[in-house]
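User: Just a sanity check before I run the rest of the batch. Below are the structure tokens for the first item. I only need the designed sequence back.
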């Protein structure tokens, strides 16, 4: 195995001290009065020997690793994958690397991921949290550890966050279906139901029906387990569409549910929108190419990502903000109207 080049190797080859080499390679040569010629020799020798710095060791020395962590529920979900890609790109422009993980909607796994990432000396976290309460996150605040919540918040918990106005955008989505003549609308939502996004989208559905004096039928509201979306959607569609009072429209509260609906409707030989309309909260590229193209609520992925990273880098650079000075950003979503909601 090829030997890993160390600071000591560089120092020995130049007959200088290891401390001098460390100062130069850490950008502190001028601060300590090391001549430009000596600094140039050290850098040239490091390049010649293909020296690779130990980022973990450097982080332990400086207290800063130039790495941030991103915890989402499912990195394979297009919504979170695009957020991760955008944050990774912009973080690199500021000299930061990104480590991203999936919590699988598990409180226990999310807590373990936070501990793991902090053990790796990440400078701060961006999280789409699954926590029901603020016990773990309150500890981070008490320790003045930088973090920003995205997508979801915890009710009554004061923190920095960047979210979308799920309630109003959900209400507008259901009103789009109602405006196209649908009165029996099935809601396909996902568990765990304590998540702020799910609560707000469901409440938007309920209030849209109330606003238009439509009956709220409990059997039309289906909660789909996160870890069994495909199978459960099939069961619920069979019940919603082949029962005694079938729905004429389906509202899927995330893109994974909408994709499962597309597959099962095809298996059931039902067409959109002739047999049933379909609208998705979350817009993904494939929806543009469906037959017909799917109407969807498009979340502002770039804005979510950019605001969250900007807040986190400010916290890392200047220190945790004081209580009561948290940045709370609520963004609007955009309805992308296609052809999947027309009434017959």
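Assistant: Here's the designed sequence for the first item:
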């Amino acid at each position: 195995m090829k030997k890993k080049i160390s600071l000591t190797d560089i120092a020995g080859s130049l007959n200088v001290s290891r401390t001098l080499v460390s100062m130069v390679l850490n950008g502190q040569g001028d601060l300590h009065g090391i001549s430009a010629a000596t600094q140039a020799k050290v850098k040239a020798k490091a390049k010649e020997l293909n020296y690779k710095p130990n980022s973990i060791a450097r982080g332990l020395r400086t207290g800063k690793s130039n790495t941030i962590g991103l915890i989402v529920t499912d990195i394979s979900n297009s919504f979170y994958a695009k957020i991760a890609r955008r944050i990774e790109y912009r973080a690199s422009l500021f000299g930061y690397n990104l480590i991203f993980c999936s919590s699988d909607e598990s409180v226990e796994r999310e807590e373990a991921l936070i501990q793991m990432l902090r053990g790796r000396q990440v400078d701060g976290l961006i999280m789409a949290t699954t926590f029901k309460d603020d016990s773990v996150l309150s500890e981070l605040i008490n320790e003045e550890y930088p973090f920003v919540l995205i997508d979801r918040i915890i009710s009554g918990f004061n923190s920095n966050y960047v979210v979308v106005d799920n309630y109003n955008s959900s209400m507008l989505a259901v009103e789009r279906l109602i405006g196209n003549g649908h009165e029996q609308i099935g809601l396909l939502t996902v568990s765990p139901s304590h998540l702020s996004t799910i609560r707000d989208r469901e409440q938007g559905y309920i209030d849209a029906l109330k606003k238009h004096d439509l009956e709220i039928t409990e059997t039309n509201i289906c909660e789909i387990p996160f870890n069994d979306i495909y199978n459960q959607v099939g069961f619920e569609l069979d019940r919603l569409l082949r029962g005694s009072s079938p729905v004429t429209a389906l509202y899927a509260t995330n893109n994974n549910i909408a994709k499962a609906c597309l597959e099962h409707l095809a298996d059931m030989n039902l067409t959109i929108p002739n047999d049933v309309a379909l609208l998705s909260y979350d817009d993904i590229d494939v929806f543009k190419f469906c037959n017909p193209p799917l109407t969807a609520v498009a979340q502002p992925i770039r804005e979510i990502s950019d605001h969250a990273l900007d807040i986190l880098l400010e916290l890392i650079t200047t220190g945790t903000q004081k209580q009561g000075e948290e940045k709370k950003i609520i963004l609007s979503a955009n309805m992308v109207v296609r052809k999947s909601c027309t009434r017959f």
